[in-house]
């Protein structure tokens, strides 16, 4: 998947978090450019505020309702991109020079969601760190934040001078405090982990599994995740139109089904291929493993739709492992335990509290097959 497609995937995943009646903060940048049409396509009754004139203009052109930030004191959700994402959750933002406004809108949100492509996660934050400076006393401010340089760009929308800090970033918290305490520094581009609720890194393609519980279901799911893909389990109780809606909205490029189950053939929307899990294709491939980060999207599990249109719940790899390691501790699941899983795998209880919990702890599954030592926790 190329970088632009990754941006689109991350943006479309974040757009699914937005619900009717929400007040939404819109960031700035190339990834947010994919968010705006994804939001517009959903035709929701939402109120938006933009962090830059460019975003505001693009949002209005697409028919999104925009209000001035000055009239809004909180946001249900703010969605924005990032220039760097560290493993501990620290971000660098401000490549577009809008980081002061972006930090204000992110800080006013109940939930701040970051969208990024796979080039943005880094082992550790590094220079340049964007700065917005007052023009008054500019030379003195630059001396105090040295090494730094002015950026050859226009002033920020609020009249600030855009610059970059080029020194070491050994301790982001310490550097953030030092920059914040420097007279003349309006704002810097370091965003702390406490501000960030979720990071979506658009990396893997999405594939749906619309099939009953079986060893093939589990092998296909784990193979997809190991290859860096995103799993979309589909409820086997769904009729074709319901499943097609979930497959279409999730962005799945492929459907894995068990043809003939309960006497029916499973069909996907036009242009989405369907592969029969029992056709032997799982035996014909070769292992493929791709590196993923904890922030990468792991799966999208949809609700049943009994109270309305099914809603997709998106989780990253680190969230999943952390949540279900805690689950194992709560219920006392241990290595070598025998774990009978009767819930459907398309349900989060069967898939995560069942299958993935067994992998985390090294328990025996319903079939009595031990988890390989390499996968055991």
Describe what this molecule looks like in 3D.
It is a single chain. 30% of the residues lie in helices and 19% in strands. With 377 residues, it is α/β, with parallel strands linked by helices. The protein folds into two domains: 3-199, Rossmann fold (3-Layer(aba) Sandwich), CATH 3.40.50; 204-361, ANL, N-terminal domain (Rossmann fold, 3-Layer(aba) Sandwich), CATH 3.40.50.12780. The strands form five sheets. The chain has a five-stranded parallel β-sheet, with helices on both faces. Strand 4 and strand 5 form a beta hairpin. The longest helix has 15 residues, at 317-331.
- Here the CATH topology of the largest domain equals Rossmann fold
Radius of gyration, CA atoms, in whole angstroms = 23 Å
- Number of structural units classed as domains: 2
CATH class value of the largest domain: Alpha Beta
What is the CATH architecture assignment of the largest domain?
3-Layer(aba) Sandwich
State the separation between the terminal residues, measured CA to CA: 30 Å
Mean pLDDT: 90
Based on secondary structure, the structural category is: alpha/beta
* Strand element count: 18
Query: How does the major sheet shape up?
Result: 5 strands, parallel
The shape is globular
Question: Largest sheet, order of strands side by side?
Answer: 2-1-3-6-12
- Residue stretches low in confidence (pLDDT < 50, at least 5 long) are 367-377
The helix/strand series, from N terminus to C terminus, equals HEHEHEEEHEEHEEHEEEEHEHEEHEEHH
| Share of residues in strands | 15-25%
Distinct helical segment count: 11
Roughly how much helix do the residues carry, as a percent range? 25-40%
């Amino acid at each position: 998947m190329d970088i632009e497609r990754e941006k689109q995937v991350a943006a479309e995943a974040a757009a699914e978090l937005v619900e009717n009646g929400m007040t939404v903060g819109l960031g700035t940048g190339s990834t947010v450019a994919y968010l705006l049409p994804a939001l517009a396509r959903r035709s929701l009754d939402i109120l938006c505020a933009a962090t830059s004139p460019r975003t505001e203009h693009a949002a209005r052109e697409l028919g999104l309702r925009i209000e001035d930030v000055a009239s809004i004191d909180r946001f249900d959700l703010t969605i924005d991109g990032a220039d760097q994402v560290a493993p501990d959750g620290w971000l660098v933002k401000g490549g577009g020079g809008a980081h002061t406004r972006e930090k204000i809108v992110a800080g006013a949100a109940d939930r701040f969601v970051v969208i990024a492509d796979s080039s943005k996660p880094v082992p550790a934050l590094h220079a340049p760190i964007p700065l917005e400076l007052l023009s008054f006393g500019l030379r003195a401010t630059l001396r105090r934040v040295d090494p730094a340089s002015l950026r050859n760009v226009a002033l920020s929308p609020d009249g600030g001078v855009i610059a970059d800090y080029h020194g070491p970033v050994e301790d982001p918290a310490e550097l953030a405090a030092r920059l914040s305490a420097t007279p003349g520094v309006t704002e810097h581009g370091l965003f702390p982990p406490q501000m960030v609720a979720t990071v979506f890194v658009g990396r893997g393609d999405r594939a749906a599994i619309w099939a009953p519980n079986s060893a093939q279901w589990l092998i296909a799911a784990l193979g997809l995740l190991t290859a860096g893909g995103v799993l979309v389990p589909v409820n086997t109780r769904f009729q074709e139109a319901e499943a097609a809606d979930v497959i279409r909205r999730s962005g799945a490029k492929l459907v894995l089904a068990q043809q003939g189950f309960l006497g029916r053939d499973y069909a996907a929307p036009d242009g989405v291929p369907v592969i029969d899990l029992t056709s032997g294709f799982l035996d014909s491939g070769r292992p493929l493993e791709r590196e993923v980060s904890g922030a990468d999207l792991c799966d999208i599990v949809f609700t049943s739709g009994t109270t309305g249109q099914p809603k997709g719940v998106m989780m990253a790899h680190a969230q999943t492992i952390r949540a279900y390691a805690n689950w194992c501790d709560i219920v006392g699941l241990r290595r070598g335990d025998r774990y009978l899983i009767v819930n459907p795998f398309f349900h989060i209880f069967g898939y995560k509290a069942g299958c993935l919990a067994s992998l985390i702890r090294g328990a025996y599954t319903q079939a009595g097959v031990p988890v390989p030592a390499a996968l055991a926790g």
